[in-house]
User: Fold this.
Amino acid sequence: MTDRATEPDATEATEAADALAASTSEASLHRSEERSRAIEAQIATDPSGFRMLTGDRPTGHLHIGHYFGSLANRVRLQDAGVETFVLIADYQVIADRDGVGEIGERVRSLVTDYLAAGIDPERTTIFAHSAIPALNQLMLPFLSLVTDSELYRNPTVKAEHEATGGRPMSGLLLTYPVHQAADILFCKANLVPVGKDQLPHLEQTRVVARRFDERYGRVHADRPVFPQAEALLSSGSLILGMDGTKMSKSKGNTIELRMTADQTAKLIKRAVTDSDRHITFDPVNRPEVANLLTLAGLCAQRDPAAIAEEIGDGGGGGLKKYLTEVLNETFAPLRARRAELEADPGHIVRIIREGNERANAVAEATLAEVREAMGMVY
Ligand code: TRP
Assistant:
């Protein structure tokens, strides 16, 4: 006997699982890139229709890769007039590890980096999702809207699980994309600047929003409870560590925003180059040298090839000297602000509390609407 009522649902779920798994495919990526360009154009003329949410797991200190890959972009969008929420994703920390570590210190350091980089707490709501009960409660209705096969097929979750090297998959790791949907939808954000690894989560978020509308209905007939959130693709971190491999705290190959000029100089001095004394910009054959040139180019806002030409026979030593100067000069104002902020820890704590308060008001209003749509008002 076929159960007619469940047939379309099952097909839809399979299609959605496919879309999710395919969200990092070439064609899909191309569409996301095109869409991102169109959104940028719209922001330039009228940013008022957007509400942006971004976030970080507080697992380490922010480094220059984070700065050029996402932080600078957030500040740019905030300054362009886009209403902004910045999330400290503290519950995500325990998705694939046993403890939270020095979480309090990490969170305060993260917020210090945000403010030093130009995130303005007057205009941007900075909050930690563990402090927002109504956000977390959205997880329950949202979980009712996804299937286990969708969850198991999420390519980013798979990759993250593989990276744990045989650690059993926790229920939180499996379901964190749904929690991330709650992060985005609690404030009805329609814009999420992300790297391409986050595209499956955005697709999952849109699926949750759509199914909520289909299954539980609306409060206002003219619009669904939740918007369709779109990715604004950022380059992610283009920069490798000082040894030419992926930046990682445990490898000690990253230049953190909080470091001093001296610490920076020491790290750059140890950077890996190659045996060819003549400096050229050749990302394919000379990735380590190209990485240092790219970084210098980002700091100096110059073409890396032109920098290579200028250094020429100055060799690895000349390149490192130039990079050290231009990097320390670029980050000197940020580091000075950071030092000032560090001198007043009470200020950072107040910023987090105020952000949490604002986020709580927004989350409670959304949860009230969700309960109403579901008829759970007694
Ligand atoms: N998963 C993101 C990361 O690892 C952090 C994050 C959590 C996030 N919730 C989010 C990003 C919601 C965008 C939207 O970087």
Remarks:
- Residues 345-373 form the longest helix (29 residues).
- The longest strand covers residues 51-56.
- Residues 1-8 have pLDDT under 50 and may be disordered.
